[in-house]
């Protein structure tokens, strides 16, 4: 049996016109009425005729997810699938489709081709490098944009983020409480705000404990497993080696762990190790990884909600929205100090 819009309207106890306004995200609908219509849609698994709706409303019901990172990074790092899953969850509920654009071209400007995506109603950008190309694209873009991670040089862009600085400080303070003092860090890329913020949190904790930030104990990575492996090899050439390492992502911590094992060192017996993200792999590592949990799926859901709510107002007026989600210290076995 084919469910029609009239069936949805009768089930929700509203007119056909009201049901249509809800499905098309019209802003002037009572929230309780809107929820009744969506409940009827969920219960009947109603699938609107998207091409017909697009023709009638001149709206595509498509948003872009723009991740200017190499394709292998997207599929190797569990962070991105969890983020995209969160975005997709909200878009599916609100009858929007998504288009994934990695913005990886051989051009110096990875955003140049995005201007041709005229059918996008809005875009979510994640893990963007703050460079002249990003800023130029955002300054010229006419569709609403929401960022996962704040963009410090363009405060008008709505964003959802976590308190990376506080989360990193909390973790390093835990390492200090365990008796570690020569604590190194493998940072994220310093041209991404999360990389800078997590390094700032590391520095805050050391300064509060009266310890200096030693340049030789700071090695930059790019959040990938391979960069963690290479950075750990660099740290192991120091004399003496660090007694603990804070990697600014769990994937870099995994790479660091592999480098330590290759060098015949044990965790936490010879050196403590901690990460950031709490991806599913963190709890499955041996030893289980102490880390900072950020709600990755919720980041995606919140970004999608911000964007779709903006589209529902049918306005291009500047709207600045900033949402900060909490982080949580997750203590496991990888940095239990051996006395």
UniProtKB/TrEMBL annotation:
Signal peptide: none
One example GO MF annotation: DNA-binding transcription factor activity
Domain of life: Bacteria
Keyword Transcription on entry: yes
Ranges of residues in domain HTH lacI-type: 3-57
Record-given protein name: LacI family transcriptional regulator
Gene3D superfamilies, alphabetized: 3.40.50.2300, lambda repressor-like DNA-binding domains
PROSITE patterns attached to this UniProt entry: HTH_LACI_1, HTH_LACI_2
Keyword DNA-binding on entry: yes
UniProt organism field: Chloroflexus islandicus
CDD domains, sorted: HTH_LacI, PBP1_LacI_sugar_binding-like
